[in-house]
């Protein structure tokens, strides 16, 4: 039902319109009435009508004044002005305000119902477009867009001029202006291959993601398969509160679910300039790497690093925590760490024993510990000790600094081998997925979930792996295939637009036309008639009209 509100100071006219117009018959609900603008305004704010019908001349607040306020507060509200004055100046002012219709008294039933019917069609078309826009955005604008990821990566690397940052942000329609910034790195990885666990937590991860996407004080994107970056924006008074709010949201959802998911939140340090975000990222990444050293600490902040680092008075063999040098820490990092984290991990791993490394026994132990743990992990991937050691230069007398670089090198080679094997496996799965999509993209039932189930991996993992390999999201890929086929059918067949919509996987022909225009730049009818998109390089369609 379209909601309408009536404002008229003449009782006879107001009651006549109220009682003689069959509102429900024409799809309307009259939600309220008032004798003047002043009385009407609070009721309009309460009921949020779609249509306001108001007299132009009234005591206390006239119709034009009311219309100006309403147009500013409710830009989508349609306004019909009723006037007893055939005066050009009134009409001009009404047009400036954005009034939909300017009707002269006396108002007949037929005249008003005709306007209401036309207005209803216009409102419904507008609402339909808004619904299509919302649906389209929810499908296309996923949080895995590579343009956004590249922006984050460049921002964290540093070296950008502030002007360049703002220019790139403007291209992506990102609002990055703020007095203060911080950064969260959020790690979420399912532990259990049991589908009941996976399905139970998938909705929770989506809840985490949607929270950050809905709130303008955060900018979020996926950095890799299991890690999200969140840029926190605020003023100097609110930045800490907003940072803590984001941490607590993840904690509230994940805490107590450690049997299903590994989760960590690493926190950077507050900065006041965009150019300082690189330092903020380095701090957050350093904290992030501590999750391997302290796996039961899920909120990783500056204090986490302090708890690892040994103070000078504590240095000595008797104070070294052997648990923090366990081979399992190395294996865990090799299984779940990223190449970009190696330097930070090695720093945190060695942080508590820097002085002790001057002792030859400890130094040799650390080297052998890293070496044997890495070889063991390589063998679990089917790489023999000999094959792996061929890639590692033998070490002689290493200084403390050399040890750090040696560990970085050995872990880097191992992770490179791991990623190559993983990429091969993912590539096979993606090829299977692409074959399945090619066979089924014309079916409306095709979804990310159905494809993930077909190749036997979780939808969330498939979504990230697909976009990482294809450089576009699953929905973008399927939409492109459907639009390519639609363009071919428009060029070469006599099928109606509704038939083409059904043929390429859309039951709703109006939504198909909306998506076509969004992605191609012109409507299906215009495309068939031979119209070109300016600068799109589209070949002129040739086919039957």
CATH superfamily of the largest domain: Reverse transcriptase/Diguanylate cyclase domain
- CATH-defined topology of the largest domain: Alpha-Beta Plaits
Instruction: Tell me the overall shape.
Output: elongated
Overall tally of structural domains: 4
| Number of DSSP-assigned strands | 10
Proportion of strand residues: 5-15%
Number of distinct helices: 22
**Rounded average pLDDT:** 82
CATH class of the largest domain: Alpha Beta
**Strand order in space, largest sheet:** 2-1-3-4-5
Given helix and strand content, the structural type is alpha/beta
Amino-to-carboxy terminus distance: 38 Å
Low-confidence stretches: 193-198, 310-317, 539-545
Proportion in helices: 55-70%
Which sheet architecture does the biggest sheet show? 5 strands, parallel
The CATH architecture of the largest domain: 2-Layer Sandwich
Using the CA coordinates, give the radius of gyration.
Answer: 32 Å
Characterise the protein shown here.
The protein has 545 residues and is α/β, with parallel strands linked by helices. It has four domains: 2-140, Response regulator (Rossmann fold); 145-308, Alpha-Beta Plaits, CATH 3.30.70; 312-428, no CATH class; 441-545, Homeodomain-like (Arc Repressor Mutant, subunit A, Orthogonal Bundle). The protein is built from 22 helices and ten strands. It has helices spanning 11-20, 37-47, 63-73, 88-97, 109-140, 146-157, 162-171, 195-214, 239-254, 277-293, 302-308, 327-336, 342-350, 360-380, 385-389, 400-440, 448-455, 459-470, 474-492, 497-503, 509-520, 524-529, and strands at 2-7, 28-34, 51-55, 78-83, 101-104, 180-190, 218-222, 227-234, 261-267, 299-300. The strands form two sheets. A five-stranded parallel sheet has the order 2-1-3-4-5, with helices on both faces. A five-stranded mixed sheet has the order 7-8-6-9-10, sandwiched between helices. The chain is elongated, with a radius of gyration of 32 Å. The two termini are 38 Å apart. The relative contact order is 0.06.
């Amino acid at each position: 039902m379209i909601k309408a509100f009536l404002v008229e100071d003449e009782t006879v006219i107001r009651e006549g319109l109220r009682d003689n117009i069959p509102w429900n018959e024409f799809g309307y609900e009259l939600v309220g009435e008032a004798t003047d603008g002043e009385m009407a305004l609070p009721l309009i704010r309460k009921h949020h009508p779609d249509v306001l019908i108001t007299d132009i001349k009234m005591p206390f607040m006239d119709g034009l004044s009311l219309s100006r306020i309403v147009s500013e507060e409710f830009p989508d509200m349609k306004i019909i002005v009723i006037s007893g004055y055939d005066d050009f100046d009134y009409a001009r002012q009404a047009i400036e305000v954005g009034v939909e219709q300017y009707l002269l008294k006396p108002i007949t039933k037929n005249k008003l119902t005709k306007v209401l019917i036309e207005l209803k069609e216009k409102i419904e078309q507008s609402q339909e477009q808004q619904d299509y826009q919302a649906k389209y955005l929810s499908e296309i604008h996923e949080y895995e867009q590579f343009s956004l990821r590249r922006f984050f990566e460049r921002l964290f690397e540093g070296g950008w001029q502030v002007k360049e940052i703002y220019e790139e942000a403007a291209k992506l329609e990102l609002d990055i202006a703020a007095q203060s910034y911080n950064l969260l790195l959020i790690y979420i990885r399912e532990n259990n291959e049991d589908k009941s666990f996976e399905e139970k937590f998938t909705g929770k991860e989506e809840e985490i993601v949607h929270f950050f996407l809905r709130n303008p004080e955060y900018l979020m994107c996926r950095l890799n398969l299991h890690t999200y970056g969140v840029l926190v924006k605020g003023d100097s008074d609110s930045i800490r509160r907003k940072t803590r709010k984001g941490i607590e949201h993840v904690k509230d959802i994940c805490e107590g679910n450690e049997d299903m998911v590994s989760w960590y939140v690493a926190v950077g340090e507050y900065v006041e300039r965009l150019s300082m975000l690189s330092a903020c990222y380095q701090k957050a990444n350093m904290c992030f790497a501590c999750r391997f050293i302290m796996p039961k600490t899920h909120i990783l902040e500056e204090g986490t690093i302090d708890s690892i680092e040994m103070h000078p008075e504590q240095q000595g063999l008797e104070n070294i925590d052997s648990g923090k040098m366990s081979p399992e820490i190395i294996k865990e990092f090799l299984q779940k760490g990223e190449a970009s984290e190696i330097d930070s991990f090695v720093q945190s791993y060695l942080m508590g024993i820097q002085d002790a490394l001057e002792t030859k026994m400890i130094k040799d132990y650390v080297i052998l510990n890293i070496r044997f743990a890495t070889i063991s992990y390589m063998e679990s991937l089917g790489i023999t000790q000999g094959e792996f050691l061929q890639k590692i230069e033998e070490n002689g007398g290493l200084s403390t600094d050399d040890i750090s670089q040696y560990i970085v090198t050995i872990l880097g080679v191992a992770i490179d081998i791991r990623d190559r094997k993983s990429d091969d496996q993912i590539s096979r799965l993606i090829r299977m997925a692409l074959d399945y999509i090619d066979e089924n993209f014309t079916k409306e039932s095709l979804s990310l979930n159905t494809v993930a189930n077909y190749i036997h991996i979780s939808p969330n993992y498939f979504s990230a792996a697909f976009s990482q390999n294809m450089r576009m999201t699953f929905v973008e890929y399927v939409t492109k295939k459907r639009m390519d086929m639609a363009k071919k059918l428009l060029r070469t067949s006599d099928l109606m637009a509704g038939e083409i919509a059904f043929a390429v996987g859309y039951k709703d022909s109006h939504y198909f036309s909306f998506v076509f225009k969004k992605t191609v730049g012109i409507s299906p009818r215009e495309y068939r008639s031979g119209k070109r998109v300016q600068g799109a390089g589209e070949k002129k369609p040739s086919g039957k009209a």
